[in-house]
Amino acid sequence: MGGVTVSLLIFLASSIGVLDSLSENDVNWAPNSGSQLVITAPRLSESPRIDGLLDDAVWQEAIRVSNFAEVNPGENVKPEVKTEVLIGYDDRNLYVGFICYESDVEKIRATLTKRDAFLMSDDCIGVSIYTSEDKGYLFLVNPYGIQGDGYDHGEGFISIDASFDTDWDAAAKILSDRWEAEISIPFKSLTFPRAREQHWRVRFLRVRLRESMFCYSWSPLSRDIPSSLSQAGHLWIKEEIFVKRTQEFLPYLIGFQNGSLAEQGNPESFETQSPDGRIGVTGKYRISPALTLDWAVKPDFAQIETDAPQIDVNTTFALYYYEKRPLFMEGSDIFGSPVRAIYTRSVNDPVAALKVTGKLGKTSIGYIGAYDEYTPWVVPFKEYSFSVASEKRSLSNIIRVRRSILKESYVGLLATSRDIDGSFSRVAGVDGYIRFLQNYSIEFQILGSLYREPSDTSIFPGYEWLEFGDYTSAFDGEEFDGLVYTLGFARRARYWGVSVWHEALSPTFRADNGFINRNDCKDAGITSYLSFYINRGIFERLESDIDIARKGDYAGNLMNEYLYPRLSIDFIQQTYLTLWYMLFPSTIWGETEFNDIWKAGGTLSTNFSKFFSGYIWYQFGKGINYYASPLDLGDFSETSLSLTLNPTPKFNTSFWSHRYWLWDDAGEEVYDVTVFENRIAYQFTKYLSLRLITQYNSSDKSLGVYPLMSFELTPFTVFYLGSNHNLYDFEEPYGISETSRQIFLKFQYMFVTGG
């Protein structure tokens, strides 16, 4: 789903097997290998009906594969139950059918929920399709036919970046001894090179949540190889696929009525404004099977899903928020790089935007152009950064090029530019990822920046005490250039892995189209792990790892150094425990040196039942009170608690809270802040749902209430009816009263021409 990034990563590369020996029933069983992992898909005489049952006669024409291997918790051993997959295609679609046999269908975990919302909590099947070495798509379906999709980065059993949404169809049915699923993937929803025949890499996957998280794969996975892409099977389509040049139009209409306080701090001054509205349109043009043009005029970026609350007390750096807007999320994999030089939320509210993504041969390209109406900044310094909002208009241009080289490797170029009233931010550089000798990789990036600040201190007045070199912190028109570089080396394998990294950002490096919340730093570190796959008794895996790092300023002066050992234990029943300790032998903040900073903590999470899941995270220690004068140490304690209840397949509720305490050396309380979120959701049908989000932040006594009725026929054709209410706990006699309100109704519908 757009907006929310979801990740399920079973990191098989960092697992070691003390493998269970095969039982007597496994003696004559062996995982697929060699020619068994090569499929030539047949052309079907007609399109199967996608209703969740593989009873159409046309499925008899499909090729059938089976002999899945259990890859978690066992490594390439015979699964407890059988799985079969059927594959075929026609002029428009690739069709995949799954038959998932079960020993007891009552134990199947499945919820009727919104798209993408079942990951990590339901049984599911999946298809990973790699149309090139740097472009993978993952399509998932649970036993109720709920869909999930995203980019597959080719690491681990399932590694999904849920920022990708596309138009495809699926259905599933639970039967007496199995459940079946059908998937129809339009070729126009994939990008691939034009050729007389197609050769893709493919993986067929199945997840069963029982006493363990059982993961089955058609292509065996070795824990000694960190890449699942290189272990995928081969899918051939022995003819040219013709994808018509379609144009998609996604107009929207939103009507709303706002209300707010006319006088700040006076609840009796609440005024309701006249109803208003907004219209806009987003479009997509398929230039070729591998190249897509997206555009938007007055796109609707109203947040149907709110950002998760974050605690921002006793922190000196700007907070990061994930992208949730569909226009920027699709194709976002192209724009990633080791340094966050591209952060699309830096384009806040564009009047118009244009995006081109795709691939020409072995070269991936991406371009974003946007004219923004309300421009934001993240202004970074050595020990502080500031989020700044404005009503300034800006023009942004972002270019990204990546060239595939060797095997699962690339070199890339990146350039960004943002112009505002004579001020500008320019960034350009090169980066790359080189994988070699199966288990080793090198990643690097070098960027240069040229910056001219706005000549307007009303946007950001800065602070007299905050300077860098010969420059002030205010927006007073200064011009400077900067540099950033990063280099990392990693080894990942079954028993042992190590990574070494170094990063440096000059005091004058700025990237307004990125998220750089700190500069003037030169950091280096090493991480190493040992992993043991036990599969005995209540234990599945044991892993220990340690980080050692040194952080300094760009001139090489020490800021801090730390030692960070961790121990992780995977139990049966999807229950996981992690313990850690972090020691800072020396820390210098400002001009004050501290020698006794430390923290310790742990996380316990579980998903042992289809009715219940949750976690508790806790840490405590001694840290800096950054806003004390003079700076001082204090004792802190921090806890996070999450609980999700699924009493029925259609209803679920989740509770999440995070609390932070800080006491000074005298034992006096400095901070006690809690943020809380509750979500209640009821799914009437696959497409119709009702949810209520409630959020509270004790630091500013704010309460948010966000009810929403959704009808989502596809990720693009939707109808919403909802409201947003922001409240504040005023002094008596007012108590909790509304400070702002919006009631809205939104409708958008996808039109397709030329297909």
From TrEMBL:
Lineage: superkingdom: Bacteria
Xref: InterPro entries: DUF5916
UniProt feature coiled coil, ranges: none
Protein name (database record): DUF5916 domain-containing protein
CDD domains on file: CBM9_like_2 (cd09618)
Organism: candidate division WOR-3 bacterium JGI_Cruoil_03_44_89
Pfam families documented for this protein: DUF5916
Domain DUF5916: 273-336
